[in-house]
From TrEMBL:
<keyword id="KW-0862">Zinc</keyword>
<dbReference type="InterPro" id="IPR008567">
    <property type="entry name" value="BKACE"/>
</dbReference>
<dbReference type="InterPro" id="IPR013785">
    <property type="entry name" value="Aldolase_TIM"/>
</dbReference>
<dbReference type="Pfam" id="PF05853">
    <property type="entry name" value="BKACE"/>
</dbReference>
<protein>
    <submittedName>
        <fullName>3-keto-5-aminohexanoate cleavage protein</fullName>
    </submittedName>
</protein>
<keyword id="KW-0479">Metal-binding</keyword>
<keyword id="KW-0808">Transferase</keyword>
Length: 352
């Protein structure tokens, strides 16, 4: 991205799109009973509350009545239908992991099989987005936490802790290319989860080969443990790499969430919050609900003069439902240099 004079002035930036991640599949209800929804009615109401607070994108996971993360696509269909009816303008983004939470005490925290994840393209009603991980990597969610971040919660249980510490994100090239094709064929936008420059470059190559022909909508996931660490150097390096026509949401975990969001907001990017990412106030004296986290970001956005997007505006900014016909159109719309030809090496050096 290019940061010219005026790039930090709010009227030269898009309205702020806030993604809410309120379902927190890594937690169990006793970890935050006042904010973890269990019944279907409660889970739908959680989406409504987040939307009313100022979030325009819902990162969606589902729970069973026993409080555990659901892996049943029928439950996803039920929640999507309920949210669509209750808040029709909200962008529904299904978490592509479905639920990585262990199914029983001491079980491994792992993502579901390739075939099961492909079935997200068959959800009915269909979501607006499904998150797509790129390149197999370690996902040790504890690496930059300290013990106070999870003390007294289910993640402090030794077996559960070890399961999450050893978690791997499986996203090999064959799976990810097929997954993108199926989502695109269903009219579902791929919301790319980028862990570093390498995963971004993999998707750029897929765009240049025509595997994906749509808007580049992505999260920079700075949670360490195999992914970028949450600091300004990594963020600036990532921003320098991505094109001006793309849409980026910044994401981190625990008490890194707020400072990373503040940096992203100032730089014209978009933000994500919720108990899936963080449970705490910055002084860690109290737990902070997803709605409270959204309200905090809305207050700060108003202080810096940046307006917050509603659902319809978020759909426009994310280009929901937009796909392109050719590789050339995809590259141009996303702000990339065209594929090189003889005598034409991109925007900086063109044939006379």
């Amino acid at each position: 991205m290019n940061f010219l004079d005026g790039s930090l002035i709010p009227e030269n930036q898009d309205k702020l799109v806030i993604t809410a991640a309120p379902y927190g599949p890594e937690w169990i209800p006793s970890d935050f009973p006042s904010d973890i929804a269990v019944t279907m009615e409660e889970q739908i109401q959680k989406a409504v509350d987040c939307y009313n607070a100022g979030a325009s994108v819902l990162h969606l996971h589902v729970r069973e009545l026993d409080g555990k993360g659901s892996k049943r696509l029928s439950k996803f269909n039920e929640l999507i239908a309920g949210v669509r009816k209750a808040v029709p303008d909200m962008v529904i983004q299904v978490g592509g992991s479905i639920s990585f939470a262990p199914e029983s005490d001491g079980a491994a925290a792992k993502w579901l099989s390739d075939d099961t994840r492909h079935m997200l393209a068959e959800l009915d009603p269909k979501p607006d987005q499904v998150t797509v991980t790129v390149n197999t990597t370690q996902m040790n969610i504890f690496e930059h936490m300290d013990t106070g971040d999870y003390a007294g919660t289910s993640l402090a249980d030794p077996a559960t802790h070890e399961a999450y510490r050893e978690m791997i994100v499986p996203s090999g090239p064959g799976w990810v290319e097929e997954h993108i094709r199926r989502l695109s064929a269903a009219g579902i936008q791929s919301a790319f989860q980028f862990y570093n420059i390498n995963s971004f470059e993999t998707v750029e190559r897929m765009l240049r080969r025509g595997v994906y022909k749509g808007p580049l909508v992505m999260n920079w996931v700075a949670i360490s443990g195999g992914m970028d660490a949450p600091n300004i150097y990594n963020m600036a390096n990532f921003l320098r790499a991505i094109p001006d026509g793309s849409m980026l949401t910044v994401e981190s975990s625990m008490r890194n969430v707020l400072p990373i969001n503040l940096m992203g907001m100032a730089l014209g990017q978009h933000v994500r919050c919720g108990i899936e990412d963080n449970l705490w106030t910055q002084d860690r004296k109290a737990k902070m609900s997803t709605v409270q986290q959204i309200e905090q970001l809305v207050r700060i956005a108003r202080e810096i003069g940046r307006e917050v997007a509603d659902g319809k505006e978020a759909r426009r900014i994310c280009k929901i439902g937009v796909f392109y016909d050719t590789v050339e159109e995809t590259l141009a719309k996303n702000g990339f240099a065209p594929n090189p030809k003889a005598g034409h090496q991109g925007y900086l050096r063109k044939a006379a």
